[in-house]
Amino acid sequence: MSVHNSTLEPVYVYQVPVRLWHWINALAIFVLAVTGYFIGSPPSSLSGEASAHYLMGTIRYVHFVAAYLFAVGLLLRLYWAFVGNSHAREIFLPPLFRRQWWADMLYHVRWYLFLEKTPKKYLGHNPLALLVMFKFVLLSLFMLGTGFALYGEGQGADSWQASLFGWVLVWFGDSQSVHTWHHLGMWGMVVFIMVHMYIAIREDIMGRTTMVSTMINGYRMFKDTRP
User: Fold this and answer.
1) Three-state DSSP class for residue 90
2) How does 148-159 read in b/e, with b if 16+ C-beta sit within 10 Å?
3) I want to staple 207 with a disulfide (CB 3.0 to 4.6 A). Which of 68, 119, 143, 217 is the partner?
């Protein structure tokens, strides 16, 4: 968990690999959401001969490329959690069994609902943001598992995707159920992005704590000395 802090001096928090993962991940999720939407709700047929265009094939190809980028990025991010600083691993290991952490999390819920006047300051994620990010990691694993299960179905039973993720289809019962849950997971990602952006921008303005710029240059700075 991040340490409490109220200094005006910039503190280096997020290392380069963490920041690169954040922005590459954001791009991959955007592409996956857009292409995934059109895969679930295909656009109207194009005019002319089918041989003259390959719209859905291109959409699926872009979706698959973004999915591999998303998967490799998460694996490298998990690796950096072991070799990076303490802030690099906090989203994977939230202190879920600490009573004070939950109390601080509820305090920040009230802060974001305008029921508290003063936020507590943290070098890394505050407890609520950390819980949201931890759920994002779990959702990412869910999306990768269901996505590669569906991909493996198309690649065939002898593919590595089917070998590693074929059990997902069995667990859900059929591929249509996996399609449905994968599609719902996409909307979960959209909701996460909206909550994430609200928390980051609001904290930057009202919490007097650098948030957006911290994910660009890596430095956290508190704009005043309120506790």
Assistant:
1) coil
2) bbbbbbeeeeeb
3) 119
Whole-angstrom distance, CA of residue 162 vs CA of residue 139: 20
Right CATH for 11-44+51-220 from 1.10.10.60, 1.20.1250.20, 2.60.120.340, 1.20.950.20: 1.20.950.20
pLDDT in tens, 36-58: 999 988 877 767 666 667 888 88
- For residues 219 and 12, what is the distance between their CA atoms, to the nearest angstrom? 4
CA–CA separation, 149 and 14 (whole Å): 33
Q: If 0-12 CB within 10 Å is exposed, 13-18 middle and 19+ buried, where does residue 56 land?
A: middle
| Distance from C-alpha of 189 to C-alpha of 195, rounded to nearest angstrom | 10
SS3 106: helix
